[in-house]
Amino acid sequence: MIITAEEYREMGFTAEDDSLLESCLQRAEYTLMGLTEGRIKSALAAGGMAADYVRQAAGFQTNKLVKEQQLGGGSHSERVAIGDYSYSVSDSDACDAVYDMSMQAIRLLKAAGCLFGGREVL
Predict the structure, then answer these.
(1) What's the pLDDT score for residue 119?
(2) If you write DSSP's letter for every residue of the chain in order, what string do you get?
(3) CA angle, corner 48, sides to 47 and 53, nearest 5?
(4) Distance between CA 31 and CA 24 in Å, rounded?
(5) How much is the pTM?
(6) How do 77-82 and 85-90 pair as beta strands?
(7) Which of 15, 80, 96, 114 is the most buried (most CB within 10 A)?
């Protein structure tokens, strides 16, 4: 894991439910690894400020996930019908993954050198 529950709390974030926190820490890691195409591994291995930025990004992303879960799941879906044709629209669609990111986490990953400047446009 990028950070532990203790490190998360040392950063000043809170979570009441330990099992929810562990789940969100793991999901934040998956999200950051996917967004950076695995570049955070080399940043963590190199140490220094880049590794600190990656850990902070993990903290902010985890905090976003924890708050979404505490507020009721964070995803919204809507069913749209036009005559006989109907479809569902969901906030958690794969194409909206970047919007589910904490903007602070994205800034920190960019500062750590894990994102290309053009990736923010996605």
Answers:
(1) 45
(2) --S-HHHHHHTT---S-HHHHHHHHHHHHHHHHHHHTTHHHHHHHH-HHHHHHHHHHHHHHHHHHHHHHHTT-S--EEEEEETTEEEEEETT-GGGGGGGS-HHHHHHHHHTT-S-GGGGG-
(3) 95
(4) 10
(5) 0.73
(6) antiparallel
(7) 114
